[in-house]
Each structure stands twice: as C-alpha cells, then as structure tokens.
Amino acid sequence: MTEPDTTPPGRQPDGAYDVVVVGAGPAGCAAAILLARRGARVALLERRSDPAAYKVLCTHALTACAYPVLDELGLVPDLEKAGAVRNEARWYTRWGWIEPKVEPGGPELPYAYNVRRSTLDPLIRSHAARTPGVDLLLGHRTTGLLQEGGRTAGVRVTTPDGERELRARLVVGADGKDSAVAGLAGIPTRRYANGRFGYLAHYRGLPLPGGLGQAWFLEPDMAYSFPNDDGVTVLAVLPDKKHLPAFRDDLEGSFEAFVRALPEAPPIDSAERVSKIIGTVDHPLITRDPTAPGIALIGDAALTGDPLWGVGCGWALQTAHWLAEEVAAAAGGGDLDRSLAAYARVHRRRIRPHQRLAVDFARSRPFNPMERLMFAAAARDARAARHMYLFASRLIGPFGFLNPRSVARAAAVNLRHRARRYRPVA
Q1: Helical (H) or strand (E) element with 121
Q2: Cα(78)–Cα(327) distance, rounded to whole angstroms?
Q3: Which of 102, 159, 302, 339 could in theory staple to 327 by disulfide, Cβ–Cβ 3.0 to 4.6 A?
Q4: Other CB atoms closer than 10 Å to residue 391's CB: what's the count?
Q5: Distance between CA atoms of residues 65 and 68, nearest Å
Q6: Are 233 and 203 in contact (CB under 8 A)?
Q7: Which residues lie below 8 Å from residue 10, measured CB to CB, with a gap of 6+?
C-alpha cells in the first residue's frame, strides 16, 4: 500500500471535511469506511508514517460480536485468505473444561477470527485507503482541537511538511486508551485498578487440542492460548499481582514455569518461540463518556476493558459501526448533537454492563456464588456451555446471560450432578 498525498488533489483544498477520524487502527479505519459509504467526507489521520504499522500488545482476537461488522466492511474473504483462524474456544475451570459444541442438526457456533495485528491493521487500513470519500493521511499527529461556538470544529496537526488545520463537523477519537483527542477535549477518565498483570509471546509449532483456543480460569490467575494466522499461537498469562516480584526477577523463567503448571499445559518446550515476551504490569480499565460537543470516542478511547476477555478489537469494530449508524446522516448537516446523544445511549447500553462485571472481576478475586453456579453448570451441560459461549463472544449481555430461565437451568444441572455424585451404592 502506498502512502496517499497529504493534500488529495481535487478534494477539500481548504482542509474542510465532514468528519476527521484520529487513529487508523481497526476502530478508526472501520469508522472511516462506514461513514464514507454513507456519504461523509472523511479525513483518516494516523500519527505513524508507515502504512504497515500495527499494535504489538494485543490479544489478537476478534470476538464473534464483531462478525457482522467484518462482513459489512467486506473483510471476511481477505481475512480467510490471510489465514485468520475461526475462534471457537474451550475454558478450563475447577469443575473441568467448558467445551461448547454444535447440537446435532443445529447451527454452527458463531465465530469471528484470531488474527495478528500485523496482518489485521495493514489489511483494514488498505481497505480504508481505497474507499471513495476517505483520505488516509499518514504521519499526521494531532496536537490541538479547533473550537467554534463552544464545540470542537476540527483538529490541528503536525505533519512531515509542517503544521496544518483540518476543519470538520465531527472529530472522532479512535486513538486508544491514552487518547489525545479525549485529553485535549478535557473528557474525564475513570480508571479502575486491575489486580492482574499480563505477558504474552508468540509460538510456532504449538498444537492445541482440536485446534481450539483455550483459556484457564484458575481463580485468581488466568491464562489463554489462541491459534492465529500463519501457524502462530499467541500464549498469554495473567497472574495475580502477588506473582509480580518473581516475574520482575526472571521474566522468561517465570513465564515458562507458569505455563508448564497449567492443567493440560500447551507443550511450549517442543515449540519455537518467535517473539519476545511482552506485556504490562499495570493495565487499568478505563471508561470515558463517549461523546462531547463535536466529538465522538470509539474503541479503547471510549472504554478499555480487561485484556483477559479479549474483547477490545471486537468492541472497536462495533463502536465504529454504532457511530456510523447514528451520525452519518448528520455528519454533513443536520442535528449532530442529537445523533451523538443517540450513539452515546447505544454505547452505554451495549458495553457498560459488560464493563461493570469486568471491573469487579479485575479485582483478582475467586468466582462469586453466581459465577460458580454458571461456570459449574457450563462444565456439566452442553446447553449451558453454549450459553456461556454466547456471553463470552459478547453476543448476549450480562442480563441475558443471567436471565431467570438460564439461572434456574444452571441450578437444576448442578443439583442433578450432586445427586448422581452422592447417590448411595446399593
């Protein structure tokens, strides 16, 4: 992919657009494509100059909730061609493995893909660059917001050729958890402590049972292993912070010892590690209001979840889609404030309940009674396992997951299990 001209010939010579999107990762590219298809003139800004740049520290997973957005973007055939792996999974608990399966004659399990960001980011960025109505401007770092009548009306950027101003009715912050747009706009950030830290590495030649992704709920420690494109498996550990001194003293030794101790551990000693062990010792969960006058936040800029759930990329695509659906008609003219308020309502309704649960679980605690009920049933019953799968894929929310019928069924499953276990021998 070649870098576009910084001032596209014949388009907006005065630097005016309907929308300026700051950040050309999955969230920003998806928003730019979807808004442009709906008639908006979009400037897509990326601070890095390399069109193949990508985020390194990531779960490299797109949850099934994102599949409809991938399909609308037209990315599914290219992802399949690039070797992205459909991401069905199984989870280890103290009650055994939760293994969602397809019912005989029933529909297949919903899926999206495990795909490394080194594959995903350039792919979706190239799609954005080819979309009529999108100007991809690389090497553009946002340094300020333009104000007009008490609202944001564009951005000030530094480029390889100097300073520049780009005017727009709407500025979209798609620039990650440390969002410059949110900071410049003074949007408050609510941070929630995470009682775990995390490290991951990429391996080649690391077989997983059934080729499925795996996660370990060890209460409070966590780990996961996801097969990815090009035969690479992403292996991550998320221990309680009580283990942090050991990891600081010997990162490689502690990482490998943690993996070897997992139940049915992936055989890392016979595999080839093809990356450094990377991670973070502090990953707070972040929540911001998703809108301000003339501004919308999407992806991690609006809400950064706990990496152990692997939902960040999926939510990035979903929030881009929700924004485009709500504001496209008003981006070129109309009641933008009303459209932004509608986007904020959708964002809060669809994601905040998940985030509240994640914030609580990030305290690095054992399962609570309701979690024990639902996880135990899912390890013992196929229908409960599929229900768990839908929740983990973020296709249903916490209220749908814990609806009275499902809770009652889980209780009945566990009672039957206890009855069989303690039935006296004749």
Answers
A1: helix 117-129
A2: 28
A3: 339
A4: 20
A5: 7
A6: yes
A7: none
3-state secondary structure of 8: coil
**Rounded Cα gap, residues 173 and 157, in angstroms:** 14
Residue 424 identity: P
Written as one letter, the residue type at 226 is: F
> pLDDT tens-digit profile of 252-272?
999 999 999 999 999 999 999
pTM, two decimals, is 0.93
In the 8-state DSSP scheme, what is residue 196?
B
SS3 assignment for 105-166: CCCCCCCCEECCHHHHHHHHHHHHHCCCCEEEEECCEEEEEEEECCEEEEEEEEECCEEEEE
Q: Could you tell me the two tokens for 360? A: 């609580």
Show Cβ contacts of residue 370 under 8 Å, excluding neighbours closer than 6 positions: 402, 407
Whole-angstrom distance, CA of residue 343 vs CA of residue 324: 9
Distance in angstroms (rounded) separating the CA atoms of residues 359 and 9: 48
Question: Which tokens hold the place of 346?
Answer: 């959708």
Q: What is the spatial distance between Cα 214 and Cα 226, in angstroms, rounded to a whole number? A: 6
Burial 81-118 (b: 16+ CB within 10 A, else e): ebebbbbbbbbbbebebbbbeeeeeeeebbbbbbbbbb
pLDDT, tens digit, 9 for 90 and up, residues 327-357: 998 887 889 999 999 999 999 999 999 999 9
